[in-house]
Amino acid sequence: MGIVTPGFRGRPRSSGPDLPPGQYLTHDFPVLSAGPTPRVPMDRWEFVITTETSRAHRWTWADMMALPSETPTVDIHCVTKWSKLGTTWQGVSLDTLMSDVDTAADYALVQSYGGYTTNLPLTDLLDGQAWLAYKFDGEDLHPEHGGPARMLIPHLYFWKSAKWVRGIQLRFDNEPGFWETAGYHDYGDPWREQRYQGD
């Protein structure tokens, strides 16, 4: 005697891609920004990681280009509900940038040219989870998408992947960033649909 009732086939499997809840698939790359696009001359661009003891680790654009790069292919998910799958980037792993940084901090406040900030646990920048990206689809990252360089943290909603990045402040406390102060979720896991505070 069978253990499955005749005619029962269960829930049909989706033939579409596996997306976080509430997301729809796009093949475009929408441009969303909170303000004007900063234009940073390459000879004045720098990236600075500042520890909780105020020690600064600095890289010029030439320094950054001399570091080993990676080409991750990842899915990205925007809090405005679009997802873009299989995007290919080039950039420097945060593991590489943090390799000589001595810190006991628990949190990072990412800072951008133009004043934008976003916060996240430091552990979310490490272990192959985050990059400082400067190419998209084999081309230099366009300014409207965060060029010359942006954070790439694909396991969180895309507002955490700050555009026009200029540095990271390492902290013991979790200071909310721009959108987090405005009511967006402090962490922003798309698979848990953490869009706003209280989600």
Quickly list its features.
199 residues; mainly beta; Sulfite Oxidase, Chain A, domain 2; 5-stranded mixed beta sheet; 3 helices
Mean pLDDT, all residues? 91
Give the uncertain stretches in residue-range form.
1-14
Rg, alpha carbons: 19 Å
CATH class term: Alpha Beta
Number of strands: 11
Distance from first to last alpha carbon = 46 Å
Multimeric organization? single chain
Q: What is the ordering of alpha helices and beta strands?
A: EEEHEEHEEEEEEH
Region (Disordered): 1-21
Protein name: Molybdopterin-binding protein
Domain Oxidoreductase molybdopterin-binding: 35-179
InterPro entries: OxRdtase_Mopterin-bd_dom, OxRdtase_Mopterin-bd_sf
Structure description:
This protein is mainly beta and 199 residues long. The chain has one domain (24-30, 40-192): Alpha-Beta Complex (Sulfite Oxidase, Chain A, domain 2), CATH 3.90.420.10. 8% of the residues lie in helices and 29% in strands. It contains three helices and eleven strands; from the N terminus they run E-E-E-H-E-E-H-E-E-E-E-E-E-H. It has helices at residues 61-66, 94-98, 178-181, and strands spanning 24-25, 46-50, 56-60, 73-77, 82-93, 107-112, 117-121, 131-136, 139-140, 150-152, 165-171. The strands form two sheets. Strands 1, 4, 5, 8, 9 and 10 form a six-stranded mixed sheet that branches.
Q: Topology, please?
A:
Blueprint: E1 24-25, E2 46-50, E3 56-60, H1 61-66, E4 73-77, E5 82-93, H2 94-98, E6 107-112, E7 117-121, E8 131-136, E9 139-140, E10 150-152, E11 165-171, H3 178-181
Parallel strand pairs: 1-5, 2-11
Antiparallel strand pairs: 2-3, 4-5, 5-8, 6-7, 6-11, 8-9, 8-10
